[in-house]
Amino acid sequence: MGSPGRVGIKDVARLAHVSQGTVSNVLNHPDRVSQARREAVEQAIETLGFVRHEAARHLRAGHSSTVGLLLLDAWNPGFIDVARGVEDMTSARGLAVMISNSGRDIEREKTYLRLFSEGRVAGLIVVPHDEFADGLHRIRAGGVPVVVVDRAETGEHRMSVAVNDVAGGELAARHLIGLGHRHLAFVGDEGAAKPVHDRLTGVRKAVAETRTEANVEIRLDVLPADLTADAGRTVGEQLAAMPPGERPTAVTAAIDLLAFGVLQALLQHGLRVPEHMSLVGYDDIPFTRQLSVPLTTIRRPHYDMGTTAAEMLATTLSGKPPQPRHVVFEPELVVRDSTSRPSKPSRRKPR
Amino acid sequence: MGSPGRVGIKDVARLAHVSQGTVSNVLNHPDRVSQARREAVEQAIETLGFVRHEAARHLRAGHSSTVGLLLLDAWNPGFIDVARGVEDMTSARGLAVMISNSGRDIEREKTYLRLFSEGRVAGLIVVPHDEFADGLHRIRAGGVPVVVVDRAETGEHRMSVAVNDVAGGELAARHLIGLGHRHLAFVGDEGAAKPVHDRLTGVRKAVAETRTEANVEIRLDVLPADLTADAGRTVGEQLAAMPPGERPTAVTAAIDLLAFGVLQALLQHGLRVPEHMSLVGYDDIPFTRQLSVPLTTIRRPHYDMGTTAAEMLATTLSGKPPQPRHVVFEPELVVRDSTSRPSKPSRRKPR
DNA sequence: GCACACTCTTGAAACGTGTCAAGAGAGTTG
DNA sequence: CAACTCTCTTGACACGTTTCAAGAGTGTGC
Asked: A81 Cβ partners below 8 Å, 6+ apart?
């Protein structure tokens, strides 16, 4: 009935024979209003189909009660789990979340950041691209609390939730080295996002420490690739095309999605995993266990990262300083079927 | 510098020695302002770090320029593609999208719908749950254009984008029947969402028509299951436990995710796909081709559904009536490796 | 019957912007 | 120089809420 969009608090007041102030009190401080009036007002609201005008409340309040979530790349299932964690926690705390997705496009990221500023969101959770400190800096200067996810930060006035990806890279590499592999490859763009960089650092660290401690020389190749399954497929083909002596016996991928592609290409070219090549992913996204060869991978607690970030933000918004301000999760090695001891191509040829 | 949250148009006006109206014109109608003043104002905006107050503009304008996208289930990769389509199209048209995700929870769906109403979004794209016509009805009555996705509607004052899932069910069943299967099973909850119901209807139609036209009797079992990979795994175990004579020779799943689970369980129990059992998915989500057995499935154009819905909405918002108001996409059979002719258990036992 | 306490209610002000009618200048024409 | 046109600029108002000081009403105690 009627057009709810045009019904205001004063229409309700008129119908219920009370003042605007009373209607407002019914909505925001019901205890201050006598039962009789409250019921009259509620009746009038129902009759008119009145809907609060969020913008007006917001204008009066000076800030909204919405929290922004800016995702780097919503197609990556890992980040969806982050979003799920954020949503579950904020909805439990009575906050609304506005999600947007930059799709690894730095321009869009800026646009959305501006939108969030203009919308005067109460707080912001960001899974950021790399070089965009300036945008974040500005919004922080405006007094909006920001939690950065997947990038370790420090400082009394900042908040962050991250994963120790150096340790993750180490886990992956040590697992392979422990199985006897001496020729490794890391698939992923070295110049890409910080987390990817860290994983490679971890792998290098493991390689270097093996050299010093056990006096075993490990060869490590870095195969650059975008962070998509398609790019993985290309790398897989490169690997398949190498002469067996030159080919690494084990591959660590920067993210599971990449490993998916590598796996697919290897199998297509007749190479068996793990017999001819061991493969380690990274993230443990839900599909990892359902692949043709369930993937050994490094698990990151995406959902918990989301809830943790949301909780920090909610605590800040309620006025208390969150404790701690920086959380770093430790990743975990999950061994499935894609890794094994290397075959010995010198003695027994794989056909 | 300073706190941008507290800088208003009048501070800018004071610094630039102009009136508020002129600042507003610089922001909204730059052509009405002389170059000299414009530059002074722009300078002042820069100096003060002024950020427009969205809520105030919104209040003045009466409606926001944000579009709401309410997703039924953002964990399903298919819906993520819908979101991607919506985002790409709306951002090309200069609209901002606010995404929220009900996670198949009808209470959350209502909450978000209320939030969108209160936020006076310019328009809404909804992938709805089933029984919640009332909420949508109210918001439509308020004059907010709504596009419903994945549910065919009719009527001059409505808009919808859907897929002919009856045809999709038929495609799947005819493919299997054509291969020679005479005992089929449909996995999915009959009482679930409309699209699932339609798929089953399509399967039944194909079965019935085969009976009338070719006089061939097809047996069809319906195995209820939630729409998750886990539920699929349970069904797969049930199937594996059946005596071979009782077991259907081919299975159609309501969605790919379910088929993933079924596949995994079957393989784990030593049944081969497609030799011992053919399997058809539904959706063609990106991981489908990377499974241990790449899945034959019914492709739905999720991304295009998103762009189409967004375009309809954008057209409506720009004042023109969209043409047409209801779009139904036809699904497509994608044959991969999970389907083949049935083995003949009566003559040759599977070992 | 007066003072006081207490509970509800009221009406106006303020939040920051966009709009619009009216006005100020500057230039042009007769 | 007056009359007119045209381009910019101005300042007040409205949008729909919440808040808050002040007022109205109702008991209660002496």
From this structure: A302, A303, A306
Residue A343 included in any domain: no
Rounded to whole angstroms, how far apart are CA atoms B336 and B294? 6
- In this structure, the strands spanning A278-280 and A250-253 are parallel
Residue A309 backbone dihedrals phi, psi, to 5 degrees: -60, -45
Do A172 and A262 lie in one domain? The reply is yes
Q: Which one of A296, A312, A341 terminates a domain? A: A296
The pairing of strands B66-71 and B123-126 is parallel
Q: With an 8 Å Cβ cutoff, are B51 and A286 in contact?
A: no
pTM of the model: 0.87
Same domain? A62 vs A121: yes
| B49 at interface of A, judged by CB pairs closer than 8 A | yes
The minimum CA-CA distance between A190 and chain B, rounded to whole Å, is 26
pLDDT score for B76:
76
| Pair (A111, A211) in one structural domain | no
Write the pLDDT tens digit of every residue in A183-227. 999 999 877 788 999 999 999 999 999 999 999 999 999 999 998
Say yes or no for a CB contact (<8 Å) between A91 and B84.
no
User: What is the residue range of B190's domain?
Assistant: 165-296
B123 within domain boundaries: yes
Q: How many domains does chain B have?
A: 2
pLDDT tens sequence across B340-349: 999 865 444 4
